[in-house]
Design a protein that fits this description.
The protein is an alpha/beta fold.
């Protein structure tokens, strides 16, 4: 007897070719029925004998399209009578009361579309907006769900007859590809060149490539916003881009046409090649290769390049012939959000860009490029995100419990926001540092657009416990919803726990630069024990003073002087360059500030310890970008190097919390510098190795006291590859179960996830 079954399928099942896949699968099994999108995902009704239906649904589960991700398949109804279906049909989308569908992230152009792009016989030959159900924009153009064309910015472009035939054909690769378009009906690009104001050239992309080859700086519209591009092999052009963008030393990203082009200047292993070539297309940090001809100004003093492969048709059209690699940095002035609207780009970037490659497919939500790194941890290689944005947002993290609908507004730096819907915690794209009005507007837009897309009405707002953060002010200034303050390092710990589905208490090793502590001091070198509901600070890095407060973050020599004063009683008599290079007046002023605590808050920050040691060793006394001193300190270490001996340090076990005291190592390093007894690279290796010893011995002591052997590592300091890998390996060898971030950044970009987990646990 034939029977009819109705299923609800949830997950990333819209805009990814899922319905035509089900259509073809049903026909291959000779089954009747229908499928349609709704706000929960898709609803499927299928008719046949039971063995056919079981084989069919198993194939749907296991062979779904590449971009699809099935979260659940629920049988809603089963009946053995009713009218027989005449074949299988794809029905019009239906909207339910509340959205639960998952929206696919934006994806790089697929190989099929690339073949058509460069095929002179194809009707989309050289069309810069070519796409299909397997690639192209999603999150950046969608205004709401269900994911239909009318709910995207492509609603402004009615399809021509040829595109409409493809769009309505279940056997076509472009069936219900919402951004589908062609030369006859779709959006266009055009070039605006301030130096040549004549009419738009017939080949604006070819003309743009010519400008880049000639040394010009061009603002180019991408999937989620504008890039500022320059020829990566033209030292003069790259240096000029630095000058205009006011970005003195922070590395630029490189965009190459292909994996082969990237391999000319970067070392790429098998895992890195797979990630670079993935349809998500993140910027990946890669070791430099000798030669390759890339301008030194792209990443001065760094051992790594940040590399992304071309991911839009426009990029591929630009990067061919004589131009295969360009600088592709965010289209903004430092500290501002990227420009994503044409008018905004023309208004904000004319002092930087010589020309603009514009396009009239509107971007609804601006999204930066994602950044990642492949790190070997034990016997496997893990991909660790440093910035989670294009290609990954808005894919959710699954919580190990069901929080109520809430909004977490994140921290001040590297801000993201997070919304909960059932077990799904949706982290926004990277928003940036909330330092100005432009970034705050971007922050508010992210909250509004994500709430609308997910159709979530939060009943609670979680925020950082720091009273001075703009995100905290946003939460407290609204009066409609209750708020929950979440301590910064507790949020870091909870974020890593949530990623791994942990609910039992863990030991959190949380190292970062700044976080407001429960005692009103600046934390950042913390050993916490707890879960989502509560935590105890069982050990910490010894407090030291930050003369000048935030200014010490930009001028690490101040931290070095504070560490020396703490270790020696007075820094003035220590015969090292970081002291000797200060004027007498500067020594006196800073000495009094540290001694008397004037504008010199206390901090337990591991990030500041790294900064201070970098200045003490003569690596970096003033920073041009975030964590520059610590980054350059790590880069002195040769890959695979091991220290022949450690530095001294002390663990004060009888105090509560226990104190990790670095004063002995500061004295020892100062003595080595005074005697000229070791190179900066050798001393950096000994210092890093000593920090690993601090982590191991402190965790062993905590395990002895608590019995907890599960460790999570979080905080921006764990972007340090030597520290992350070394901590993972030494703790694992000592019998700990160690978890690191794999879905969200270990830095503050993951804090909103932890805020949502902590607040959600308490509000269940």
């Amino acid at each position: 007897m034939p029977e009819t079954r109705r299923y609800q399928i949830r997950g990333v099942v819209q805009g990814v070719g899922f319905r035509p896949f089900v259509f073809r699968t049903a026909e291959s099994h000779s089954l009747g029925g229908w499928i349609r999108n709704d706000s929960d995902g898709v609803v499927l009704e299928i008719q046949g004998n039971p063995s056919q239906l079981e084989a069919f649904i198993e194939e749907v589960r296991t062979n779904a399209p590449t971009l699809a991700r099935i979260e659940s398949v629920a049988l809603l109804e089963q009946r053995s009578n009713g009218e027989a279906f005449d074949g299988f049909a794809i029905q019009t989308s239906e909207r339910s009361a509340q959205a639960r569908t998952l929206v696919s992230p934006d994806m790089g152009v697929c190989e099929d579309c690339l073949r058509e792009l460069f095929d002179p016989a194809d009707r989309r030959h050289l069309y810069p907006y070519i796409n299909c159900t397997n690639c192209g924009p999603r999150y950046t153009i969608i205004r709401g769900v269900p994911y239909d064309r009318k709910m995207t910015t492509m609603a402004a472009f009615p399809m021509c007859e040829a595109c409409e035939r493809e769009y309505n054909d279940p056997y076509d690769r472009r069936f219900h590809a919402q951004p589908v378009a062609c030369w006859d009906c779709g959006p266009r690009v055009w070039l605006r060149d301030s130096r040549r104001p004549e009419e738009d050239p017939a080949d604006p992309i070819g003309e743009t490539a010519g400008l880049l080859r000639d040394g010009a700086i061009v603002a180019v519209k991408g999937l989620g916003g504008y890039h500022l591009m320059a020829d990566a092999r033209n030292e003069e052009a790259v240096a000029e881009l630095r000058r205009r963008k006011r970005r003195e030393e922070k590395p630029f990203a490189l965009m190459s046409a292909s994996l082969d082009a990237a391999r000319e200047y970067a070392q790429v292993d098998e895992v890195e090649a797979e990630l670079l070539s993935s349809i998500a297309r993140p910027i990946l940090l890669l070791r430099k290769r000798r030669g390759g001809g890339i301008a030194e100004s792209v990443a001065p003093g760094s051992r790594s390049w940040g590399v992304v492969l071309a991911y839009t048709p426009t990029h591929h059209l630009l990067l061919r012939d004589e131009l295969d690699t360009v600088v592709a940095t965010s289209g903004n002035v430092s500290d501002e959000p990227i420009a994503f609207e044409d008018e905004d780009a023309l208004e904000r970037l004319p002092e930087i860009a010589d020309a603009f490659l514009l396009g009239n497919r509107k971007i609804f939500t601006r999204v930066d490029d994602s950044i990642a790194r492949a790190v070997t941890l034990g016997d496997r290689t893990e991909v660790t995100p440093l910035r989670r944005a294009r290609g990954y947002t808005p894919s959710p993290v699954k919580a190990p419990f069901r929080p109520p609908p809430l909004l977490a507004v994140g921290p001040e730096l590297k801000n993201t926001v997070c919304l909960s819907r059932g077990e799904d915690l949706f982290l926004s794209h990277h928003i940036g540092d909330l330092k100005n009005e432009a970034t705050r507007r971007s922050f508010e837009h992210a909250i509004e657009s994500l709430s609308k897309l997910l159709e979530v009405q939060p009943g609670l707002i979680a925020h950082d416990s720091h009273p001075g953060y703009l995100s905290t002010a946003f939460a407290r200034e609204q009066k409609a919803l209750p708020t929950v303050a979440v301590q910064h390092h507790h949020a870091h710990m909870a974020a890593c726990m949530c990623e791994h589905g942990l609910t039992d208490p863990v030991l959190g090793v949380i190292f970062d630069g700044t976080g407001y502590g429960t005692d009103g001091k600046i934390w950042g070198g913390e050993f916490l024990v707890g879960d989502y509901g509560s935590f105890e600070r069982v050990a910490q890095l010894e407090y030291c003073r930050l003369p000048g407060g935030d200014r010490a973050v930009e001028e690490p020599f101040r931290v070095a002087l504070s560490l020396l004063q703490q270790a020696h009683g007075s820094f003035s008599e220590v015969d090292v360059p970081v002291v000797n290079e200060r004027s007498e007046q500067e020594r006196q002023v800073l000495g009094r500030m540290i001694e008397q605590g004037v504008n010199s808050p206390l901090t337990s920050s591991m990030g500041r310890l790294f900064d201070g040691i970098a200045a003490l060793l003569g690596v970096r006394e003033r920073c041009r970008y975030d964590a520059q001193a610590a980054i350059e300190l790590e880069q002195l270490i040769e890959p695979g190097a091991r220290a022949d001996r450690l530095l001294d340090w002390e663990l004060h076990r009888d105090e509560q919390p226990m104190r990790v005291d670095p004063r002995p190592l500061v004295r020892e390093l100062a003595g080595e510098v005074e005697r000229g007894a070791g190179s900066a690279a050798e001393l950096s290796l000994r210092f890093h190795s000593t920090v690993l010893d601090m982590v191991l011995r402190t965790c062993l002591e905590i395990r002895e006291r608590t019995g907890i052997a599960t460790v999570v590592l979080s905080g921006g300091v764990f972007q340090n590859e030597f520290l992350l890998r070394g901590s993972f390996e030494t703790l694992s060898e000592a019998g700990f179960l160690v978890h690191v971030h794999r879905q969200v950044p270990t830095n503050d970009g993951g804090v909103s996830l932890g805020q949502a987990a902590v607040a959600g646990w308490g509000a269940r």
